[in-house]
Specification:
The chain has 620 residues and is α/β, with parallel strands linked by helices. The chain has 3 domains: 3-208, Rossmann fold, CATH 3.40.50.970; 216-376, 3-Layer(aba) Sandwich (Rossmann fold), CATH 3.40.50; 387-497 and 532-575, Rossmann fold (3-Layer(aba) Sandwich), CATH 3.40.50. Helices cover 36% and strands 18% of the residues. The strands form 5 sheets. A 6-stranded parallel β-sheet has the order 5-4-6-7-9-8, sandwiched between helices. Helix 6 links the parallel strand 8 and strand 9.
Length: 620
């Protein structure tokens, strides 16, 4: 057997650059490179290997370990999970900084490979700097914290363990059903240890991404259910987009006349103006989608995991005879809501279902009703886009200006705060990749790093990062990385002086926005003084971004047009009115309200909560 003597770290990097994926005959490298911040847990091992292979496996420097995981996941999202990055950190805080990113990627079913440095396997040096000591075991480190948020986890205590660990890691990363975060904890001494690896380990390997098809008997039964339904509705999730099934879905609904509501991850499954696209569904949904979901006798979930925002905390589907058919590559999701499961790829399954439904379509009155809801909602969006609210612009108007002036192929990135709810309802999506929301974990701080990863995945597209002041303060550091790498972002920073989303939620549960405003503390002991004098524009400029300040709608439009002509990252800062909010429509979200309180507003909120909760249905 031919062997090659390499350190464990060298073998790891050499292996990664030989991994390819193929779907529908298109082949590409699976890894676009490696993000990293070096420290004493990885500089001499992985750091040396990355330097050695720098010409064939590109290294990217980041400012925060959490951010590099966000950038990798965003890149994978834009690439439909067919390409991603590795991320390496030192031991200790460098490693644990990645845990939030790991949870985000796993929850959103996005492939990311994490390579945190770990303590010495030989243990002679213990306790190492930044090492967690445990009295009950020496076989533990902070990297064990990655276990619950990883789809696959391993610690490489001997260099030859890579030979079996790496194929398992790639199996999970490339699996449409099992993908998420893969963590390989790498003891720093083992990284630098040499071994005679079999040369075959470093030969090119192509991982085929299958389009699995559902059981034929289940498919036939699903066709019968659909044919017997009177008010069916489709819930389109992220699986539609990852499967590249948007055109297939369009053909399917035009054949059958079944209207569609889109989840956060599924927004863009259809063009916003398609007559059967009811728009957003659930807590942040439109009236038409939520009314037709409430009345539906059959719900066809395609690539959705039915988060509580989608199901409105199990209140969305109120027809006593409602049934579910779930098309999903993940068996766990396919069985939700006691559904008839069609475990398979969205595109392949819709193609087969279309054949089984030849000649079937919903009645014209039902389709006309959906089309009317679509037209009425478009008019409502137009109204919100043009409120001419003042003196401060409303958040809905900001969304309108950006959406109107952006191009169909552009990408809008957001993650947390009050913006996602407004965007889900209001953003007119014209391209399957035009709407990029990280709402599985709703991670504050994702936006700029996620925008950077999106732009790297699609450099030909303009990327707009919509971010509130709260999320911006969480993680603005990657502006420096974008500037360093020549990655252009158009960052639209909305200054509403605090946590507007949770402020609104606090008011709804009777707590009057307590602790959510950015204000000075007064003699009363509360944060109810003057607004804090934070200059976000000056901060962004200090990190290297070009700065444009806007004070009203016209100035914002002019700023967007200026930014489009620039070649560098630009930050547009605009103050918005946090009190002018976009309403909720025909939906509810379960947020538990205090059962006992001396506050009358909390008491009233509790009464309302108890009443609303009676509508929850106990779907399994």
């Amino acid at each position: 057997m031919t062997t090659q003597r390499l350190t464990m770290a060298q073998a790891l990097i050499l292996y990664l650059q030989q991994q390819y994926v193929e779907r529908d005959g298109h082949e590409q490298p699976f890894f676009a490179g490696c993000w990293g911040i070096f420290g004493h847990g990885n500089v001499a091992g992985i750091g040396q290997a990355l330097q050695q292979y720098a010409d064939t496996f590109r290294f990217y420097q980041c400012r925060n370990e959490q951010a590099m995981v966000h950038a990798a996941a965003a890149y994978a999202k834009v690439k439909n999970r067919l390409q991603t990055f590795a991320c390496t950190s030192s031991i200790g805080p460098g490693a644990t900084n990645m845990i939030t990113g790991a949870a985000m990627a796993t929850i959103n079913r996005l492939p990311v490979l994490l390579l945190p440095g770990d303590i010495f396997a030989e243990r002679i040096q213990a306790p190492v700097l930044q090492q967690l000591e445990a009295a009950h075991s020496q076989d533990i480190s902070v990297n064990d914290c990655f276990k619950p948020v990883s789809r696959y986890w391993d610690r490489i205590n001997r260099p030859e363990q890579l030979i079996t660990a790496l194929p398992e890691a790639l199996r999970v990363l490339t699996s449409p059903a099992d993908t998420g975060t893969v963590t390989l904890a790498l003891p720093q001494d083992v990284q630098a240890t040499a071994y005679d690896y079999p040369a075959a380990l470093f030969e090119k390997r192509v991982w085929h991404i299958p389009r699995n098809r559902p059981d034929a008997v289940s498919l036939a039964q699903a066709a019968e259910w659909i044919r017997s339904s009177k008010q069916p509705i489709i819930v389109a999730g992220g699986g539609v987009i990852y499967s590249a099934a948007t055109e297939t879905l369009r053909a399917f609904i035009e054949q059958t006349g079944i209207p569609v509501g889109e989840t956060m991850a599924g927004k863009g499954s259809l063009p916003y103006d398609h007559r059967l696209n009811l728009g957003a569904i659930g807590v942040t949904g439109t009236p038409g989608a939520n009314i037709m979901a409430r009345e539906a006798d059959l719900v066809i979930g395609i690539g959705t995991r039915y988060s509580d925002f989608t199901t409105a905390s199990k209140t969305a589907f109120q027809n006593p005879h409602v049934r579910f058919i779930n098309i999903n590559v993940v068996e766990f999701d396919a069985y939700k809501h006691s559904a008839l499961p069609l475990v398979g790829d969205a595109k392949a399954t819709l193609e087969e279902l279309s054949v089984a439904l030849q000649g079937y379509h919903t009645n014209t009155m039902y389709q006309a009703r959906a089309a009317t809801y679509q037209q009425e909602w478009d008019a409502e969006v137009h109204r919100i886009y043009n409120l001419e609210h003042g003196p401060l612009i409303s958040q809905g108007e900001v969304v309108g200006v950006v959406n109107t002036l952006s191009h169909a192929e552009d990408i809008m990135v957001c993650a947390a705060g009050s913006l996602p709810g407004d965007l889900h309802k209001l953003w007119r999506t014209r391209n399957p990749k035009g709407y990029h929301l990280e709402y599985g974990y709703s991670t504050m701080g994702y936006e700029i790093a996620g925008g950077m990863g999106s732009k790297m995945a699609a450099p030909e597209r303009e990327v707009y990062v919509l971010v509130g002041d709260g999320s911006y303060l969480m993680m603005s550091s990657e502006i420096v990385t974008a500037v360093q790498e020549g990655i252009k972002l158009i960052i639209v920073l909305l200054d509403n002086h605090g946590y507007a989303s949770i402020g609104g939620l606090s008011k709804s549960v009777g707590s009057d926005g307590f602790g959510t405003k950015y204000r000075y503390r007064t003699e009363s002991g509360h944060l109810d003084g003057e607004v804090l004098p934070v200059d976000y524009g000056a901060n962004a400029a200090s990190l290297g971004a070009k700065l444009i300040r806007a004070n009203n709608r016209d100035e914002l439009a002019d700023a967007i047009q200026q930014a489009q002509k620039m070649t560098e990252t630009v930050c547009i800062v605009i103050e918005t009115d946090r009190r002018q909010r976009v309403s909720g429509y025909e939906s509810w979200w379960d947020v538990a309200v205090a059962e006992v309180s001396e506050n009358p507003s909390v008491q009233q909120a509790r009464d309302n909560y108890v009443t609303a909760k009676t509508k929850e249905r106990h779907f399994s």
